[in-house]
Amino acid sequence: MHKADLIVGLQWGDEGKGKIVDMMAQDYEVVARFAGGHNAGHTIVTNGKKYALHLIPSGILNPDAVNIIGNGVVVCPANLMKEMSQFDNLEGRLWLSDKAHLILPYHQMIDQAKERMRGDKAIGTTGRGIGPAYADKISRSGHRVGELKDVETLFVKIVEYLNQNRPVFEAMGVDVPSENSLKEDLERYRDGLLPYITDTTQMIWRELREGRKILLEGAQGTMLDIDHGTYPYVTSSNTIAGGACTGMGLSPKQIGRVTGIAKAYCTRVGNGPFPSEDFGPDGDRLREQGHEFGTTTGRPRRCGWFDAVAIRHACALNGCDQISLMKLDVLDGFEKIKICVGYEFEGERIDYVPYDLEHVTPIYETFPGWEKVEGIDDYDALPDSAKAYIETIERVSGVKVGIISTSPDRNDTIVRP
Ligand code: IMP
Q1: Is 393 among the domain residues?
Q2: How many domains does the chain have?
Q3: What is the per-residue DSSP string for 106-117?
Q4: Residue 153 sits in the same domain as residue 265
């Protein structure tokens, strides 16, 4: 049976999936996104041109690949159309599931209003309407991309919804869009997206049957998963491997090799527990050396040490076959490097991720640093201290580190047999 390979983030997002997906996408015939929305993002530079991708899969830069936005994704039509405008003609190369849910203008306003209302308990969302769109989907009052085929009916349903919820919106300070602007927007979305809308479930089954090479591109990271992450400081979708089944219409048996992407240290953007966060000069240095500022929102990322406990948890949840360790070069020049190998929780040492990650204290092992790994593309050429660091990650996580990235350049990548 043919299977689809999968790439997932193992931390709190921003692991550097973009570089690996972009590299791998060159070898795949189909690349698909299965969860999240335009809260994700990375920039790819090819042939001197810069592309900002938030929703469109990275396979778009491989002219021979077909790209799918699956049913598990939430789609903001205006943003998708803006993203599409970076490319000449995507017809036949980009497909959008008719079952994906729409992010409509009021979702974004609700997201931002709710964050304001949470005050110092704010999640620190990207403010893109992701949570409210998924909330409408689950409460069965959302609207699907396929409804754009009949804008008249969709318009009537949305107006009904807005009227029913008007008192709530007013109390939240959310401006309800006027009927005229809503109608115009929906017609614009229909005109821009209709040629791309299809039944992607049938499509991916057909591609698998015909033996095409398929890559499933995860967004965000395992610790932001709605069920298994640091709830409520999470995103609103299943970011883990299981999300690829529901978000594409694949059975677990159709998932092939799983590559988990992890940075050689840890970052988090937004609020919520982050046990190995470093508030001192090392954290600042990681942020500077790693250019740790959000691609979607520009926010400075919180930085800290590699959390091997969280990685083991993530590898188990995703069934990882290998880890791809990113940005090892960012640790160049540190005299000492730490790995969180356990947590102290309620007076005991534990080696798993508990329900309440807020109240654990990290237990570290400290390693001697190294001078420079930047640009190294051969495992044997790595300094012994870097090898010891990688081997500790393998020992604690129980998963082989198969890929190591030593600079943003595609060529500076170690692929171990
Ligand atoms: P939302 O997905 O916009 O609702 O945001 C929920 C949480 O997930 C916030 O902490 C965001 O910062 C975080 N988040 C969402 N998307 C990403 C991402 O692509 N990278 C890193 N963090 C993200």
Answers
A1: yes
A2: 2
A3: HHHHHHHHHHHH
A4: no
Place of tokens 């640093």: 369
235 CA to middle of ligand 1, Å?
Answer: 6
123 CB near ligand 1 (under 6 Å): yes
Q: Give the pLDDT confidence of 300-352 residue by residue, as tens digits.
A: 999 999 999 999 999 999 999 999 999 999 999 999 999 999 999 999 999 99
The residue segments making up the domain with residue 223 are: 4-75+201-415
Q: What is the pLDDT of residue 43?
A: 82
In terms of pTM, does the model score above 0.90? Answer: yes
42 a catalytic residue: yes
Position 46 scores a pLDDT of 76
Judge if the beta carbon of residue 128 lies within 6 A of ligand 1.
Answer: yes
Whether 143 is catalytic? no
Answer whether 222 contacts ligand 1 (Cβ < 6 A): no
* Domain endpoint, select from 195, 217, 236: 195
Q: How many CB atoms lie within 10 A of CB 89?
A: 8
Q: Is residue 132 part of a domain?
A: yes
| Residue ranges in the chain whose pLDDT is less than 70 | none
Cα–Cα distance for residue pair 291/302, rounded to 1 Å: 11
d(CA 34, CA 331): 32
**For the CA of 40, the nearest atom of ligand 1:** 19
| Domain end call among 195, 228, 261 | 195
Rounded to the nearest angstrom, the distance between the alpha carbon of 417 and the centre of ligand 1 is 34
